[in-house]
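Consortium newsletter contribution from the modelling node. Members have asked for a concrete example of what our holo predictions look like. Here is one, prepared for the flavin mononucleotide complex that several groups have been discussing at recent meetings.
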Amino acid sequence: MKKAIITEISGLSQYLPCLATIVTCHYNGRYNALAAAWHMSINVNPPLYGVSIALARFSHDIITKSREFAINFMPFNSAKLVAATGGVSGKDNDKFSTFNLKSETGVVTGVPVLSDAYSAFECILEDEHTYSDHTLFVGRVVAIHQADEAYSKDGLLDIESTKPCLYLGKERYIEINSYNLKHLSRKATASRLSGID
Ligand SMILES: Cc1cc2nc3c(=O)[nH]c(=O)nc-3n(C[C@H](O)[C@H](O)[C@H](O)COP(=O)(O)O)c2cc1C
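And here is the predicted structure:
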């Protein structure tokens, strides 16, 4: 593919689409939630999961103080909750009551875990690093909450029954309604393409 080259970089959107999540947190009895697309798995043992949050966000202050948070993986039918929690700050709004967010308290931490999420990670802050306008919060996953009906026997998301909420950017959300699923063994595929056994 012929590609345009951009060297004046004002933002990164080429990695999209990605899974939209809602990060929940609490401090002093106050719950908060923000939409987050900048999240990733970091380590297996110990299990570490990261999310990058702008210094300007109310959630940034809360996580810095409470040192715990949850990542909630949302179904497409909750896309409005993702958009809404990303649309206002908890500085001025109690988003849990404004958007009627239902939750249960975590089992290891005090973070709220969203009832509408098909799975969630409860995390205790393990590490953090600020890169000028965002902080990468690295959490140790201390409990996984998952709706068993959303997962098939092999532990993968059953996208026939549970459509994840994908974010395309610029306020667009994607529901996966048709797809091609290929099972490609990495070793067998590498050997087939290279001709090496
Ligand atoms: C789909 C989506 C993804 C977002 N991803 C992030 C993110 O990864 N990090 C971040 O700091 N803000 C992100 N935002 C913006 C925050 O969710 C938004 O500024 C929110 O109002 C902050 O809430 P708070 O001030 O209560 O923490 C995202 C917004 C949307 C709609």
